[in-house]
């Protein structure tokens, strides 16, 4: 699958990127969500992703207080990747902070990721202590100083994206991306205006949790006992009544289409996501093993037919307004 552009910038990247939350080493509140991945596995995950065409990596300050950023840099260096060979996206954490924290913490982001530059710097969520306009001014300064290449936001409302876009436009800087949750089991961005805003403003959508943290691979439907080993996910999913039964029609359709293409259900789910809206949507997929990384990256080569896309669209329609 050919690369695609991030908004109105000159940055091009593969339709699927590797999410690096799991490289947090169990540090911090966010890092504790996933069990730690040891260095050897981390390097193999990054290597396999890169070998199969994944050329961008998404991390964040909040992922282990910089541990994910450092781990990603170490892994890329260990496999011989050079700066410029890949695109790096990270995020500033606005929790209990004002916009001045963007410049105050930037040296830490740069240091953690060296020798790799920051192609995309994102505001991780819209609940900081400063208006979005102030945050965008700080981000624009980083672009003007050529410390980053592009600006993105994450988890914003339609109005928030519009304000961020307008603030940057006044400063001559485009808004490149909006990172949001999107999958066959959570299609709310299609009905709440977020996807429409991205189309209207020429902002790329970076979809996180595209496999619903493994649910769309079908492994939990085939072996429900595996839920007991799913950590925090198990507790979250058990609070949702009849989750497996409500989502089973989607998984069964993924399995059927996968069999016709010689692909796995998760690969079909990723292919649908990055093909359903032309080049507008890219997917961020995590991996805790090299095998998972390989499965995810191979979805880049899977081309679904219009009929496949429509079948999946229809079976997942219940999740356009209400996520699983």
Describe the structure in your own words.
With about 325 residues, this protein is of the alpha/beta class. It contains 13 helices and ten strands. The chain has an eight-stranded parallel beta barrel, surrounded by six helices. The chain has a two-stranded antiparallel ribbon with strand order 1-2. The longest helix is centred in the C-terminal third of the chain and has 19 residues, at about 245-260. The protein is globular, with a radius of gyration of 19 Å.
State the main characteristics.
324 residues, alpha/beta, two-stranded antiparallel sheet, 10 strands, globular
Helix and strand layout, with pairings?
Blueprint: E1 4-5, E2 12-13, E3 16-19, H1 28-31, H2 39-51, E4 56-58, H3 67-78, E5 87-92, H4 100-113, E6 118-123, H5 132-144, E7 148-154, H6 158-170, E8 175-181, H7 194-201, E9 204-208, H8 219-222, H9 232-238, H10 243-261, H11 265-275, E10 281-286, H12 290-298, H13 306-315
Parallel strand pairs: 3-4, 3-10, 4-5, 5-6, 6-7, 7-8, 8-9, 9-10
Antiparallel strand pairs: 1-2
Helix pairs in contact: 2-3, 2-12, 3-4, 5-6, 6-7, 10-11, 10-13
């Amino acid at each position: 699958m050919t690369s695609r552009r991030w908004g109105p910038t000159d940055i091009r990247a593969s339709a699927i990127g590797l999410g690096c939350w799991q490289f947090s080493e169990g540090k911090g509140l966010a890092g504790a969500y996933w069990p730690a991945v040891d260095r050897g596995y981390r390097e193999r995950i990054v290597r396999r992703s890169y070998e199969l065409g994944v050329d961008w990596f998404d991390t964040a300050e909040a992922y282990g207080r910089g541990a994910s950023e450092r781990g990603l840099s170490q892994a890329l260096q260990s496999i011989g990747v050079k700066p410029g060979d890949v695109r790096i996206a990270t995020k500033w954490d606005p929790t209990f902070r004002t916009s001045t924290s963007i410049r105050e913490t930037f040296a830490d982001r740069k240091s953690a990721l060296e020798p790799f530059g920051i192609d995309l710097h994102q505001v991780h969520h819209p609940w900081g202590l400063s208006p979005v306009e102030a945050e965008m001014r700080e981000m624009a300064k980083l672009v003007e100083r050529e410390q980053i290449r592009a600006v993105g936001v994450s988890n914003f409302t339609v109005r928030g994206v519009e304000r961020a876009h307008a603030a940057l436009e006044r400063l001559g800087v485009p808004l490149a991306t909006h990172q949001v949750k999107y999958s066959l089991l959570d299609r709310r961005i299609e009905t709440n205006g977020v996807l429409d805003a991205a189309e209207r403003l020429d902002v790329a959508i970076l979809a996180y949790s595209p496999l619903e943290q493994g649910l769309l691979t079908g492994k939990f439907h085939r072996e429900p006992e595996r839920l007991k080993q799913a950590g925090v996910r198990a507790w979250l999913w058990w609070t949702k009544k009849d989750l497996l039964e409500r989502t089973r029609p989607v998984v069964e359709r993924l399995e059927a289409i996968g069999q016709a293409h010689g692909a796995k259900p998760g690969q079909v789910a990723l292919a649908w996501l990055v093909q359903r809206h032309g080049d507008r949507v890219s997917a961020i997929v995590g991996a805790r093993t090299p095998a998972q990384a390989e499965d995810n990256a191979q979805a880049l080569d899977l081309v679904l037919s219009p009929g496949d896309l429509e079948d999946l669209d229809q079976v997942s329609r219940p999740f356009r307004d209400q996520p699983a």
